[in-house]
Amino acid sequence: MPFAALGLNRDLQYALEKQFYTNPYPIQEKAIPPILNGKDVLGIAQTGSGKTASYVLPTLQLLQSKPVAKNRYVNTLVLVPTRELAIQVQKVYKAFSDRLEQGIKSLAVFGGVSINPQMMDMNGVEILVATPGRLLELVEKKAVFLTNVDVLVLDEADKMLNLGFKEEMSNIFKLLPKKRQNLLFSATLSADLSAIQSLVLQNPVTIEIEAETQNLDLIAQLAYAVQDDRKGPLLRYLISTLEMKQVLVFTSSVHRADTVTDKLNQNGFKAIAMHSKKSQGAREDALRKFKNGDVQVLVATDLMSRGIDIPFLPFVVNYELPRSPKDYIHRIGRTGRAENAGTAISLVNADESHHFGIIQKKMKRSVALIDSEAINLKGF
């Protein structure tokens, strides 16, 4: 089905062509028409499935038919859990709105940086992409008003709830008009999400897209049984012997991310860490250097992975396993994208072996566990 069949206007069809979009993803095919018809939507689909464009495109079209919003009274509000995702979503809005006949200004706001430039940039903004805490700060300073919001989008709502934004979101809901269109997108449907769904959504169109097996088919999965104290040397051994020119390494904590990064650099590998304790500028710099090939290894925590979108990333390594099978699939899904094959490697210690079995059962894939004891790691 072409995008034209979804009800998108010619300006957006032209913008899609210029961005080399050909056919819509399933979430886009099912979400765009009801959004254009003013319906509330609950979309459940894995990260990387095209969720962002599924609401960016129709909300841009809806705005084109409305009068320009009063200054600092935004029309469309998108709430996201992280700074990186805010930046990524706003870039998608800008990429499409720049090609529209009627210009539409969007802005991403988030904490960790000075609020003053964001306050000044609010002039003329119609689409605001925000993390909850910074949004409330801007409201308190009267830099933005939410009484005219026509469309509310909650993106990665499952992560927002897990990260403890409930109180902040409750305060935001009180500032919004009761009559509005609500769009809620998430990778999972949890009990917490069901609760907020009943609070926010009115007779929603529910769309649930199953994870497509062909995404995993593009990913060669390997796992090594390894003692915890040998994980660092084994990682460096694999990077060298497999000639990894670009590899994303996941750890489960900020401290471990820094430790792994330091050891890599001490052993001659160009590595950089990206996690919540880094400043916004440092995080953007880390991602830019990794994408440009200035550093070989990016070491990240799960939360930071939400802002990492690299179509041709060849390798992902789980230095430590994530807590849930869905997070595992999300991690390895950073590779094997855009129909390009990739390799995902997990380093599994004795304490993680049972959990790794659960992960395999949930994803309905068997991954052979290679014994690393015979590998000579001297010098690594």
State the helicity in percent bands: 40-55%
- The radius of gyration is 22 Å
CATH superfamily of the largest domain: P-loop containing nucleotide triphosphate hydrolases
Q: DSSP helix count?
A: 15
CATH class annotation of the largest domain: Alpha Beta
CATH topology of the largest domain: Rossmann fold
Task: Identify the strand order in the major beta sheet.
Answer: 3-4-2-5-6-1-7
Number of domains: 2
**Shape from CA axes?**
globular
How are helices and strands ordered from N to C?
Answer: HHEHEHEHEHEHHEHEHEHEHEHEEHEHE
Q: What's the story with the biggest beta sheet?
A: 7 strands, parallel
List keywords for this structure.
14 strands, Rossmann fold, 2 domains, alpha/beta, 380 residues, 15 helices
Q: Explain this structure to me?
A:
The structure is a single chain. By secondary structure, this protein is of the alpha/beta class. The protein has two domains: 3-208, Rossmann fold; 213-371, Rossmann fold, CATH 3.40.50. It is 40% helix and 17% strand. The chain is built from 15 helices and 14 strands. The strands form two sheets. The chain has a seven-stranded parallel beta sheet with strand order 3-4-2-5-6-1-7, with helices on both faces. A seven-stranded parallel beta sheet has the order 10-11-9-12-13-8-14, with helices on both faces. Helix 3 (51-64) packs across helix 4 (83-97). The radius of gyration is 22 Å and the shape is globular. The relative contact order is 0.12. The mean pLDDT is 88.
